[in-house]
């Protein structure tokens, strides 16, 4: 698939006279690949300026006590210089084992894990179930498909507000629950119910993507495999376990990884569902945002430190996930 | 394949493969109908509430049917900053799309076709950047942008959005370029085209569908971006829809009826747009995932 770069032609416009010396290799490489580098240059520059520099800057900020009162800022024509100072790793120490470490970091950490696992499992199981139902000869399949992806089609920032109205104290969900004689929880006030509500809304939003991806995977499984299994007398469950699931493994590993990353980083749903209330239902991302922007004074250093920790968690998870996938591949 | 099931199963009439028995069929329809209703209900409810003239009507939904009116829509269109928001959203989403797709196209091609030192590293960085939690970049970006005076400007927001859009579009386009036969490039080179010439004159025109998908995705993502827009835009008239919609709900006063009407006005075009392209977006997203 990959075209190796052809040897440099004699008339390469930028070719230079060979100069012996330690720079030889760099120059050679430059002559051979200069157009590849020219082509990736825009993205490398954009990412360097917009991601690399802020990342380095952000890491530096975590080593200071920067907040909105001592940072450099421009108000009208006045420029105020930064006065924050370097404090080393104190921020990290405070987050991880300071006096309020449990309340502020670890409780949110645990909830974030619970949130991610629950949501991804629900997304996957419901998505797979619906995909299997849709993957049959069925009247009205197209219509079902169109309706079922609606939660993905409508922007999240719109649908979350619909849920917020429905979950309000005297909203339609509680009215319905009341009518059939069930308890009417205060979804948006009680911490446990806030968490339930958040998981519910996120599940509603995330299922369609899983369903569509898995449906694509199901359709690519060879029909003959099912036929062969049936002839061998495999039950429906055995066919599911030994034909469907292995057939889906490559799609599954991709969507589960994406699902974990997206759910772990999910900002909009919790932020819009609860506004600035519900400290207990905040996952680490929204909690970090709140430290940096949802309070006065804004604690930039702390917020950035949370960000760095979050990135570290994701990188560790992803590399373990890859290692686990690779090992399973070798065993299979 | 064959029209007569009897050749398949001689003797007793059998169901063809993939055909359901009556119980299973009813069960499937019931499940899918319930699921569709759950998917549909919040949206229908929002549309219904948008017809109620009073901001507390959501508490007494039964009364809305009798006094349904389009007044909320009229009010939103004439008395709020709706059209300012529309303009801001278009500027930000359009700008992000243009900038993102243009800078990503050549990279997608280079990563797809050429082997050069740093190739794999670059692909890893592109992949990793997509997984960045917003919390990592938002603070330093805010700090840098307030020094540069880029907070509360659409240009600033476009730059911030590009941090996620550019790597994603590069991946998506790499996936698309991979599907274009390499023989075309070789033929182009044979005919004396430079690598840039091949890309520009041969491959890019063929990649138009891929570019369109990348553009759609970039547009929809920038359109619906909440965190950065809520942080970087301060002035009411510069809000994008994602921020503007929040402004109906403050701690003291919640105008649910107006919010619902605005939400419907925003959702209709985007949803239609989404339905047109969704098939391609799914393929693009999963292709850009693990299979590097």
What this model shows, in words?
The complex is a heterodimer of chains A (332) and B (292). Chain A has a domain at 110-331: MetI-like (MetI-like fold, Orthogonal Bundle). The longest helix of chain A has 39 residues, at 24-62. In chain A, strands 2-3 form a two-stranded antiparallel sheet. Chain A is an all-alpha fold and 332 residues long. Chain A has helices at 24-62, 90-97, 101-134, 141-148, 150-153, 156-167, 172-179, 191-219, 223-231, 236-247, 249-264, 268-274, 284-293, 300-331; strands spanning 3-4, 73-75, 78-80. Chain A is globular. In chain A, 69% of the residues lie in helices and 2% in strands. With 292 residues, chain B is mainly α. Chain B contains 13 helices and one strand; from the N terminus they run ααααβααααααααα. Chain B has helices at 5-8, 22-49, 71-79, 82-113, 119-130, 134-148, 154-178, 182-190, 195-206, 208-223, 227-232, 241-244, 256-287; one strand at 114-115. Residues 1-12 and 288-292 of chain B have low confidence and may be disordered. Chains A and B meet through strand 1, helix 1, helix 3, helix 4 and helix 5 of A and helix 2, helix 4, strand 1, helix 5 and helix 6 of B. Strand 1 (3-4) of chain A pairs parallel with strand 1 (114-115) of chain B. Chain A: It holds the Pfam family BPD_transp_1. Chain A: Residues 109-321 form the ABC transmembrane type-1 domain. Chain A: This is Arabinogalactan oligomer/maltooligosaccharide transport system permease protein.
């Amino acid at each position: 698939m990959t075209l190796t770069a052809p040897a440099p032609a004699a008339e390469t416009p930028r070719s230079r006279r060979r100069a012996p010396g330690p720079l030889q290799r760099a120059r050679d490489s430059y002559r051979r690949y200069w157009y590849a580098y020219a082509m990736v240059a825009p993205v490398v520059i954009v990412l360097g300026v917009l991601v690399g520099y802020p990342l380095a800057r952000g890491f530096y900020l975590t080593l200071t006590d920067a907040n909105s009162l001592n940072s450099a800022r421009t108000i009208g024509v006045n420029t105020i210089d930064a006065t924050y100072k370097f404090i080393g790793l104190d921020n990290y120490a405070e987050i991880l084992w300071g006096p309020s470490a449990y309340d502020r970091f670890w409780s949110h950490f645990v909830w974030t894990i619970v949130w991610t696992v629950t949501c991804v499992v629900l997304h996957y199981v419901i998505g797979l179930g619906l995909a299997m139902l849709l993957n049959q000869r069925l009247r009205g399949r197209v219509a079902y498909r169109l309706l079922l992806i609606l939660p993905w089609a409508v922007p999240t920032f719109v649908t979350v507000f619909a849920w917020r109205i429905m979950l309000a104290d005297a909203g339609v969900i509680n009215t319905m629950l009341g009518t059939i004689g069930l308890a009417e929880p205060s979804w948006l006030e009680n911490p446990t119910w806030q968490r339930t509500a958040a998981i519910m809304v996120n599940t509603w939003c995330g299922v369609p993507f899983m369903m569509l991806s898995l449906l694509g995977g199901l359709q690519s499984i060879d029909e003959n495999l099912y036929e062969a299994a049936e002839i061998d007398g495999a039950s429906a469950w055995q066919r599911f376990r030994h034909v469907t699931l292995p057939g889906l493994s490559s799609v599954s590993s991709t969507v589960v990884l994406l699902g974990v990353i997206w759910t772990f980083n999910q900002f909009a749903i919790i932020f819009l569902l609860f506004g600035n209330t519900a400290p207990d239902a905040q996952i680490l991302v929204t909690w970090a945002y709140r430290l940096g922007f949802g309070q006065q004074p804004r604690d930039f250093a702390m917020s950035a430190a949370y960000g760095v920790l979050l990135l570290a968690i994701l990188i560790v998870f992803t590399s373990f996930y890859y290692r686990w996938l690779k090992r399973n591949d070798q065993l299979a | 394949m064959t029209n007569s099931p009897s050749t398949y199963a001689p003797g007793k009439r059998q169901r063809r493969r993939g055909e359901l028995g009556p119980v299973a069929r009813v069960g499937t329809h019931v499940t899918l109908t319930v699921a569709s209703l759950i998917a549909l209900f919040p949206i229908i409810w929002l549309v219904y509430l948008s017809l109620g003239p009073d901001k507390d009507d959501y508490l007494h939904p039964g009364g809305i049917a009798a006094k349904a009116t389009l007044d909320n829509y009229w009010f939103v269109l004439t008395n709020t900053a709706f059209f300012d928001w529309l303009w801001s959203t278009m500027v930000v989403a359009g700008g992000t799309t243009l900038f993102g797709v243009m800078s990503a196209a050549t990279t997608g091609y280079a990563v797809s076709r050429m082997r050069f030192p740093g190739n794999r590293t670059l692909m890893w960085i592109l992949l990793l950047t997509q997984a960045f939690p917003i919390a990592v970049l938002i603070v330093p970006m805010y700090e840098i942008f307030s020094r540069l005076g880029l907070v509360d400007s659409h240009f600033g927001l476009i730059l911030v959005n590009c941090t996620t859009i550019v790597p994603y579009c590069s991946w998506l386009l790499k996936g698309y370029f991979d599907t274009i036969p390499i023989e075309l490039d070789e033929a182009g080179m044979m005919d004396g085209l430079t690598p840039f010439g091949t890309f520009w004159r041969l491959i890019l025109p063929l990649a138009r569908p891929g570019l369109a998908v990348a553009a759609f995705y970039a547009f929809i993502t920038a359109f619906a971006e909440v965190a950065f827009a809520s942080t970087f835009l301060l002035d009411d008239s510069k809000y994008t829809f994602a921020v503007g919609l929040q402004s109906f709900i403050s701690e003291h006063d919640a105008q649910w009826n107006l919010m619902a009407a605005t939400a419907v006005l925003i959702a209709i075009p985007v949803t239609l747009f989404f339905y047109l392209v969704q098939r391609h977006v799914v393929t693009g997203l999963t292709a850009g995932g693990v299979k590097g």
